[in-house]
Design a protein that fits this description.
The chain has 131 residues and is α+β, with helices and mostly antiparallel strands. The protein has one domain: Roll (Thiol Ester Dehydrase, Chain A). The protein has two helices and six strands; from the N terminus they run E-H-E-E-E-E-E-H. 22% of the residues are buried.
């Protein structure tokens, strides 16, 4: 699992229990999944189609730093399936897991489109090929 994004838990991110609001965390995850898919599929037009069971394992509090990890589960014909883990950066305690996030590649008309990808590619490797 690669952890790309870190977020500081601020007062505006808290629920009445003074822990990280689940909706805020899901917003961060959805954004991270979209960014990951855009980079992998090399297309800015991707949408979230599905998220499997969301397992809240522990809480985060104000001042905690959380990091969001994404990993490719599989490449579909028009989709990319990701796995997510969010953890506390300092303690490494798991905060949340999601086994399947399905992101769909779209064409100019907003319809699902084949992306032709079969494996994870890193931007640094793409740049080497072009250079």
């Amino acid at each position: 699992m690669r952890y790309h994004t870190r977020k500081a838990v601020k007062p505006g991110d808290l629920n009445p229990n003074e822990t990280l609001f689940g909706g805020r965390l899901l917003e961060w995850i959805d954004e991270e999944a979209a960014l990951y898919a855009v980079i992998q599929l090399e297309n800015r037009k991707v949408v979230t189609k599905y998220m499997s069971e969301i397992n809240f394992v522990s809480s985060a509090r104000q001042g905690d730093i959380v990091e969001i990890g994404m990993e490719v589960v599989k490449f579909g014909h028009t989709s990319l399936v990701l796995k997510c883990e969010v953890r506390n950066k300092m303690t490494r305690a798991t905060i949340l897991t999601i086994d399947n996030i399905v992101m769909v590649n779209l064409n100019e008309e907003g319809r699902p489109a084949a992306h032709g990808k079969t494996k994870v590619e890193y931007v640094k490797d793409r740049l080497k090929k072009k250079g």
